[in-house]
What does this fold into?
Amino acid sequence: MSQSRRVPAESLKTLCKEVFRQLAVSEEDARITADVLVTASLRGVDSHGVARLRRYYTDGLQSGMIVAQPNERIVAETAGTALIDAGAGLGMPVSYRAMQMAMAKADATGVGVVTVRNSNHYGIAGYYAMMALEQDMIGISLTNADVNVVPTFANLAMIGTNPIAVAAPAGEERAFVLDMATSVAAVGKSIVARDRGQPIPKGWATDETGALSDDPARVLQNIAKRQPGGMLPLGGLSELLGGHKGYGLGLMVEILSAVLPGAASLDETYPKTADGESLPADLGHFFGAIKVAAFRPLDAFKASVDDVIRRLRQTPRVDGAPRIYIAGEKEHEEAEQRRKTGIPLDAKTEADLKRIAEELDISVDF
Amino acid sequence: MSQSRRVPAESLKTLCKEVFRQLAVSEEDARITADVLVTASLRGVDSHGVARLRRYYTDGLQSGMIVAQPNERIVAETAGTALIDAGAGLGMPVSYRAMQMAMAKADATGVGVVTVRNSNHYGIAGYYAMMALEQDMIGISLTNADVNVVPTFANLAMIGTNPIAVAAPAGEERAFVLDMATSVAAVGKSIVARDRGQPIPKGWATDETGALSDDPARVLQNIAKRQPGGMLPLGGLSELLGGHKGYGLGLMVEILSAVLPGAASLDETYPKTADGESLPADLGHFFGAIKVAAFRPLDAFKASVDDVIRRLRQTPRVDGAPRIYIAGEKEHEEAEQRRKTGIPLDAKTEADLKRIAEELDISVDF
It folds into this structure.
């Protein structure tokens, strides 16, 4: 990001929270939603951070597609599980509470699973998985999403980038935090490339002819118009290098996060009228918590995670590779850096945030 | 398989069971182990089927590396979880019982997780995940394995092909059964290519220089000798096409299946003496069961899975693609076929099975 200035995380969190408050979201829900967005920006996942405030959240609240004060309710519950209907509210607050509930159940029975339906975009999957770390649990977070990915041998996007997030606590080392789209690359990376006028690597997406394309504008336009082509599942175009595995993982996430709670699935998740007008979304999420101490003494587990991380880090490297990473390490280091120096905002995002603030009569301190 | 003859599944199951009985394995454990092996062969996963009887199982039982009548015991237990020590026995019987236990817990609390340590090769991961289908549950099965895969930027195999298996019941359609190595391709496929003198696709593995290799003999020899190079994680060589995601998934499986139960991990899973002699393995497994009816009425869930499968199947295809598959569909069709026509055995496998039978004084009906 060349043309960017840096803004303290707290300033952005205050702004986001105020924006949601002005749009009739409760104090608690506004706080949670702002924290999820700013956490994404801190971790360098800008495609899921404050830059998406309007597109994914305030537009929906203002149009009524997202309910500011939803009737969130528990539909089914057992000792180890629950199903929550989010009442078409914001995805973040219900997800936060669902993960808390999964952890409470795990504390009592060793493992908890809570699923959510009738929800909206919940931000970064990793946020909820990482909540488990504070309670010395392993956290799991999955969601379905708008369709961007072409199943193997198909030529139309029919599945979301359906992320998998799993976090496990370490001792002296940083926690393991996997947070990955099940596509080759997240859609946000293609959006960034398009906005910068850059090509994307061949292998990320196909065009309307079914061939690999390096033109993000063309790929994204096709997806938006429900024309052939789209992002590729992890493993790529064919079965040769395992594209069917990425597709299979995406479908696994769809079943666990959307079919299990009874949310809409695949191309029905963000429905539209015949005229192309958006209707309310019905996304689903899956949250799991596993209590480490139900299996092993916590210290022994953490020492083993440390040991695994260190042995991996010390593995001989290919020529020119500076280091071997553990999932979550880059994002953790980015967050440490951004907490000190601020979150970089490109000119477009900064202007957009200030416009939202102005529209809602909120003062901005940056 | 050109030079192969077909043998009824029941004949192979009887033979395998008799072999294990002769090696002092209990009636029940012999039955389970034979069923897992023959199920793999039926589903076309020959690399994990009867062809591996000697290499993975009878050699170990005869040398005492695998204990025929292990002291299998529950080390820790809560309402929703358990940890089992397999007593260095065969991987299949303890895994079968662990999955049964996970399902019993899920029946009571909605979700169950049982992990296993001090175990051996458990065959196909999907077998245990599929056990959940009979009880209308979603099944999960993970295991660590001998190191074959190079972490992203590393030049030495430090992680197994660590499979992920997840099965979910359908209604009129066939169940969803994902059963995938987290590497680009399973090691077994490289072994088959080597034995046939064929190259492997560039993108599956690296040689000792860190470059992509199409020579399976070279790659497999390097792995066996702990020389640089190895199989690549799903997504391939670099971060460009998501290799770090496959590596992250493999490490996730390592943490859940080996670190959580306290099994050995990474390159310590199959330890050797300084002279290169094998010591007993200490593998770990993870089994999860989720009771569908704890979330939604079962019929509604199954109808939704059917609907998802049908919509995917009807998606427009790329030119020349005959159909769109659902995970597990190919294996299911292969099993239907092989149940009728028998399991194809190549000459080497047939001779090896007959030699094992002869050594153990077992008569063979094929």
Chain B has eleven helices and eleven strands.
